[in-house]
Structure formats: C-alpha cells, structure tokens
Specification:
alpha/beta, Rossmann fold, seven-stranded mixed beta sheet, globular
Length: 238
C-alpha cells in the first residue's frame, strides 16, 4: 500500500477535512502522496462565521479560507490545489475540466475521492461530482489506446455526505482511522469558519467506528470513515 497516490476533490475548501481527512492521514502514514482540490473556497455559502465580522469582504473571506485549508491539508500531509471557481452556485467551465483532467494525468492517482452525485440541500456537491467524473473519464481514454495523453484507470469512490440517507449514499467501505484520529481533529480545528461541524464529524467518526467494529469484530477500532465505491475493485481471491 505504500507509495499510493490519493486525489480528493471537494466543491468547497473544507469538504476534504470533514469527509476524508482520516483517509489522507492514513495514506501519508503509509508513505503515500495526496492532493486535495478545492473547486471553490465556499466563500459565499459556507463561511457564515466570517461574514459576521463588520466590513468583511469576499476577497478577505477567500484569503482566510485558503489559509485554513492549507493548514488543514498540511496537518494530514496533503498538497492543496485551489481552483477558486466560486460557490453557490459552483459553475464548472470547460477550462476547469481541462485543468482537472490535466492534474489527473500528471498526478496519476490510484484513488479518486469526491462527493456523491445527489444532494438535496447543497447545489454545489453534485456539480463537483459531475466535474470529477467527466475529468476522470477523459483521462482514462475509455481504457484503450488513444490519440491523447491518458492516465491509468483509478479507483473511484465517494465520501460520506452530511445527510447520507438523503443523498443515496450506501457505504461499501469503512476505513479504520483510529490511529490518525487526533490528526483529523487537528485538521478540523483549522477550519475555524465552520466550527459548528467539528463536533458533528468527530461524532460521525465514532458512529462509523462502531459500524466497523460490528463488521470486523475488531474491538480496537474506535473511529472510521465511510466511502462508497462507484466502480468494482479487482482482487486475486476472495
């Protein structure tokens, strides 16, 4: 598992922290490399605490959110790529698809993580999913020799949304993050503009840890993150 490359794409700058910081930290711990893409900073729809400050500006909110995301990414050992496409609504341009596809070709990730394709409460999350799915397909060349530069096929998973039942999210994989949970907490604390989510996702990790214990019988698992595979994984034996 060492040397694996993980690409995590979020609609907003904090999405990777809540949903996949443990996965990134585990990848770093195993000697892997991770890149986090923030398609926007969430400056309009996900920075309410910052807008309470008198005289606040959109550019200053972006600056703060960038600093928070860089700190969080650094805590889990990832590199941050900020596209700054704007939020609510997030609009994906052809140039953004090209940029994301080129990043995939250059980085050649083994695993790609992003949002599910449904979210009845957040318009940006399905948009991000569609962009990642398109860019990933463009880089694979449909799995055959092509007249353009391709990247090897990747595993494709979605991370757990805030309200999984309403987003059609059904976990097919639990990742034990017990050993790196303190690192995830550090990353979550860096996202001060959304402090209200820190307790929620700490508790969610505990819930998923409980589920993982029941699946495995491993009583040492205390926290976990949940993911859903979108394409089958291939194994040599069951």
């Amino acid at each position: 598992m060492s040397g694996r490359r993980l690409l995590v794409v979020g609609a907003h700058s904090a999405d990777f922290v809540w949903r996949a910081a443990g996965a990134i930290a585990r990848n770093t711990e195993a000697g892997g490399e991770s890149v986090v893409v923030a398609l926007s900073y969430g400056e309009r729809g996900e920075s309410g605490e910052l807008w309470k400050q008198e005289g606040q500006t959109e550019e200053n909110v972006k600056k703060i959110r960038h600093q928070e995301a860089e700190t969080a990414a650094g805590a889990v050992g990832a590199r941050l790529e900020a596209f700054d496409l704007g939020d609510y609504p997030l609009r994906i341009t052809p140039e953004a698809i090209d940029r994301l596809a080129e990043l995939i070709r250059d980085f050649a990730p083994h695993v790609v993580l992003t949002h599910p394709d449904k979210d009845p409460f957040n318009p940006d999350h399905p948009t991000a999913h569609a962009a990642v799915a398109q860019a990933r397909l463009l880089t694979s060349g449909a799995g055959v020799e092509s007249g353009f530069r391709t990247a090897p096929p990747t595993e494709f998973l979605v991370f757990e949304p805030h309200q999984p039942e309403l987003c059609g999210f059904v976990p097919t994989l639990f990742l034990d993050i017990t050993g790196v949970f303190d690192t995830k907490v550090e990353a979550m604390r860096a996202m001060a503009a959304q402090q209200y989510l820190q307790q929620y996702y700490a508790e969610r990790a505990g819930h998923r840890g409980n589920h993982a214990r029941k699946v495995t019988g491993d009583k040492a698992i205390r926290q976990a993150e949940a993911f859903q595979r979108l394409v089958p994984n291939v194994v040599g034996r069951l």
